[in-house]
């Protein structure tokens, strides 16, 4: 590097800030508020049936509420990456509190649906702001994985406590309102978007990530991640159908799903512990290939015990890859230009995963369903690796500014 380049790089600092208790709590709690509705989907379905809707109507209400949340997340992503991030999060969470409170206490079915829809749209802003805020923190691998672990642990607590209190409007929708309220209280701690983010070219003349490549990689991850997630969620949401086909008992299936959630958290913990040392491109490639093989195997097996084990394994691989995808998007830009809309894009795709999966099983059979879901993972390996390399190139360039080595 020339002396001019050295002096230029020295004048610019890495805009990302270290993970601390306050900014970490804000990112993790706001993220939890944005995703809690999806996590409580089975309980929401039960309460909607209590209110007076049948299974089909309840499913439609939940699907379109999640879709509304995802659309708001996508629509607000640009603002989440700017100077009004905290204001956007606060306004969205206030709307969430009000909407979920209406659904909690008013007996009218139409008002319950309206409240749930308004609340869901409100927390869509939490999806974009928490996703964008992750990019403002150093070591996106560790931050995204820690967020995933915290999210799963808190969800496990909520899922354990709410049924004990009793499934009702006040407990289930009230839990959504309470989590939104707690998250609202810490929005002031969200890390702000950097006013200036040096490009890879500005910081390092021989950088591997030019601004054009970053933009291409950003749009690509917004396409690849939802496609991959849809194939994963189709297997997850249709696990009962797959279990019925091989005579897997409800008790064993329930145990497998619970174990999958716990082991998935352990997979996220691995990324938390090793952080950026494991890189992104290679582990993502391995995860997608392994996940593709397991999904094909799931479609072919006729042994209930094998299916139960495969469900646990495929969700473990999924959890590992999920946090690395988020880290990849966060690594592309410290303002959160790409990580802000990422979860919203994912939820849009996953909202239709049950419909797509059911259509494939009904029309082509379970074996072809598993094969197609596996092929999706294989097809996405190369673009995922290319995106991940651009992401690590950007982070390497920023770390070069403060002398911190970054593995390839």
Automatic annotation (TrEMBL):
Species this protein is from: Brevibacterium picturae
Lineage: superkingdom: Bacteria
Annotated TM spans: 26-48, 60-81, 88-106, 112-137, 149-166, 172-193, 214-231, 251-274, 281-300, 306-330, 342-361, 367-388
Keyword tRNA-binding in record: no
UniProt keyword terms in alphabetical order: Membrane, Transmembrane, Transmembrane helix
Pfam families referenced in this protein's UniProt entry, alphabetically: MFS_1
Protein name: MFS transporter
Signal sequence annotation: none
């Amino acid at each position: 590097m020339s002396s001019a380049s050295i002096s230029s790089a020295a004048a610019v600092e890495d805009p990302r800030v270290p993970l601390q208790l306050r900014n970490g709590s804000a990112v993790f709690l706001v993220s939890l508020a944005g995703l809690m509705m999806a996590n409580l989907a089975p309980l929401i379905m039960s309460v909607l049936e209590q209110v007076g809707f049948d299974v089909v109507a309840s499913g439609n209400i939940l699907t379109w509420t999640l879709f509304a949340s995802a659309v708001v997340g996508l629509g607000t992503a640009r603002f989440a990456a700017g100077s009004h991030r905290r204001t956007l999060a606060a306004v969205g969470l206030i709307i969430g509190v009000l909407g979920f409170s209406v659904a909690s206490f008013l007996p009218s079915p139409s008002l319950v649906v309206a409240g749930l829809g308004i609340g869901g749209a409100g927390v869509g802003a939490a999806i974009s702001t928490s996703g964008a805020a992750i990019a403002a923190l150093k070591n996106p691998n560790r931050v995204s994985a820690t967020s995933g672990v915290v999210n799963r642990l808190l969800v496990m607590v909520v899922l354990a406590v709410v049924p004990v209190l009793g499934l009702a409007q006040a407990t289930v929708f009230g839990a959504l309102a309470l989590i939104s309220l707690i998250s609202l209280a810490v929005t002031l701690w969200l890390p702000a978007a950097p006013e200036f983010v040096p490009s890879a070219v500005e910081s390092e003349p021989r950088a591997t990530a030019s601004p054009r490549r970053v933009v291409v990689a950003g749009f690509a991850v917004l396409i690849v991640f939802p496609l991959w997630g849809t194939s994963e969620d189709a297997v997850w949401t249709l696990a009962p159908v797959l279990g019925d086909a091989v005579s897997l008992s409800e008790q064993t299936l329930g145990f497998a799903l619970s174990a999958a959630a716990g082991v998935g958290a352990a997979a996220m913990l691995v990324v938390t512990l090793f952080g950026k040392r494991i890189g992104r491109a290679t582990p993502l490639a391995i995860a997608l290939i392994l996940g593709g093989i397991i999904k094909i195997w799931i479609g072919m097996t006729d042994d209930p015990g094998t299916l139960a084990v495969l469900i646990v394994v495929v969700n473990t691989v999924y959890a590992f890859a999920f946090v690395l995808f988020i880290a990849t998007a966060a690594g592309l830009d410290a303002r959160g230009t790409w990580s802000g809309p990422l979860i919203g894009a994912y939820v849009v795709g996953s909202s239709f995963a049950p419909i797509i999966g059911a259509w494939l099983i009904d029309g082509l059979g379970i074996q072809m369903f598993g094969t197609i879901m596996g092929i999706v993972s294989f097809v996405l390996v190369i673009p995922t690796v290319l995106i991940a390399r651009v992401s690590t190139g950007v982070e390497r360039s920023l770390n070069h500014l403060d002398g911190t080595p970054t593995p390839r």
